[in-house]
Specification:
With 437 residues, this protein is an all-alpha fold. The chain is built from 17 helices and no strands.
Length: 437
């Protein structure tokens, strides 16, 4: 039976406290008026002139037209007010999507009746426990957006919609009430499956037959259908709609690949950590090797989707579509291309060799790079549409990551300590114990 160490518990609490201070600082220093926003931009330009050159040129041109200048200043104010909200939202969604990616991987293992992975089921169940607090936090941010506490979703502003024919055409789908109803249904489905599957998993250890295992198989197969539909719509609602003029038919799969590889990476890292503490003795190098293969393979799959989306839109050069990438290449050059390198080049270089997939510290190193890269991926999806060229990674962004990292670690390891780490009556447990590749 695993017991969470005091050092780990204290470390996660410290991360949460420091993170909260950083988040609070971000909201405290956000400008409240146009004059404060102008002063903040001027101060930032003095220190980081190269970062906001594009914004300077725009401001200079806008000065020729007084009305345009006032509208631009108001827009910059909203961008700077969005900055702590966007930092919070990026980190909240990133850690939530890790748990959601693990839930998909877990359901696939259950539905496929995989023989190699039952020894890892408790690890997966521990990580997916974060779906409850993580999902609630994301939902609260969405509710606060509907209440106009921020400007993350421009289509929620009636004045914007009134002057935008395209958004008026999408109003039947993009309206606050329907938006929250969809979010609530998705969260209820994901949380409901996780809780019921976990209950069946624990009950199987106490049972005299395989009825709980068979029920878990059936609900997992059904859940995967719900998951694929809900995950796609969620990606349109929660991410793509921050830029409601842009669209991509690949986007649901693209977000899925990002959360899937991030989730598998965390499974590998938590498993290696537990093994280093003397737990999961039956988990061998072949289990780690298989997880690392998934990390490598899904990274390639993510790259295929990223390139397909980018290349087709860039080559077609349709203004409504290509502006998405023009904004990111011009204003987010470093995080945009660094994200591609971290999510493709590093996994290929680090995990191509089969022997390296069995070296724990090597898998951990690759995992850190992959997770950082996919955080940057979420950053690139959210920030350009919410804060524009006023971005930089500062205290609010770092604070949000620290807070959610602390909450994530505390919650999943507390869940891991609530039940034995190894299933005992899973029909495939012996096969998993003797798995060798």
């Amino acid at each position: 039976m695993y017991t969470i160490s005091n050092r780990l518990k204290m470390g996660s609490i410290i991360l949460m406290v420091v993170g909260l201070l950083g988040i609070g600082y971000g909201f405290w220093t956000a400008p409240g008026t146009v004059e404060e926003a102008k002063e903040m931009v001027a101060d930032h330009n003095d220190n980081h002139g190269a970062v906001t050159t594009h914004g300077d040129e725009y401001a200079t041109e806008a000065h020729e037209d007084e009305g345009h200048d006032a509208a631009h200043d108001e827009h910059v104010l909203h961008q700077l007010q969005n900055k702590p909200w966007a930092a919070l939202y990026v980190a909240a969604f990133f850690f939530f999507m890790i748990a959601l990616g693990v839930l998909a991987f877990y359901a696939v293992q259950r539905a496929a009746q995989a023989g190699w992975s039952p020894l890892l089921f408790r690890v997966m169940e521990g990580i997916t426990s974060y779906i409850v607090p993580g999902g609630i936090i994301v939902f609260v941010i969405l509710v606060l957006s509907v209440m106009h506490m921020n400007h993350l979703f421009v289509w929620m502003d009636a004045d914007v919609v009134a002057h935008d024919v395209l958004l008026q055409g999408k109003a039947g789908y993009l309206n606050p009430t329907f938006f929250l109803i969809r979010a609530a249904i998705f969260l209820a489905g994901w949380i409901g499956y996780r809780e019921y599957s976990r209950k069946l998993s624990l009950a199987q250890d106490e049972s005299n037959d395989d009825s709980n295992f068979k029920m878990n198989f059936r609900i997992s197969a059904a859940f995967l259908v719900f998951y694929l539909i809900s995950e796609s719509i969620m990606s349109w609602d929660w991410i793509m709609s921050v830029d409601p003029h842009w669209f991509s038919t690949l986007f649901g799969w693209y977000v899925f690949a990002s959360m899937f590889v991030s989730g598998i990476t965390v499974i590998a890292m938590v498993t290696i950590y537990l093994k280093s503490k003397g737990y999961l003795e039956q988990v061998n190098d072949s289990h780690i090797h298989d997880l690392a293969k998934f990390m490598f393979g899904i990274s390639i799959f993510w790259t295929y989707l990223w390139f397909s989306q980018f290349m087709l839109i860039w080559y077609a050069n349709i203004p409504e579509e290509v502006t998405y990438y023009v904004t990111r290449i011009e204003d987010y050059n470093l995080p945009f291309f660094a994200m591609v390198a971290m999510n493709f080049l590093f996994p290929v270089l680090l995990l191509m060799n089969s022997d390296y997939k069995r070296i724990n510290w090597f898998v951990i190193m690759a995992g850190i790079v992959i997770l950082a890269g996919h955080y940057m991926d979420v950053f690139n999806m959210i920030m350009p549409s919410t804060v524009g060229d006023q971005w930089y990674i500062g205290i609010p962004e770092i604070g949000a990551v620290l807070f959610f990292a602390g909450l994530f670690v505390f919650w999943i390891f507390r869940a891991l300590a609530s039940a034995p780490l190894q299933p005992t009556r899973n029909p495939f447990i012996e096969e998993s114990k003797h798995f060798h590749y």
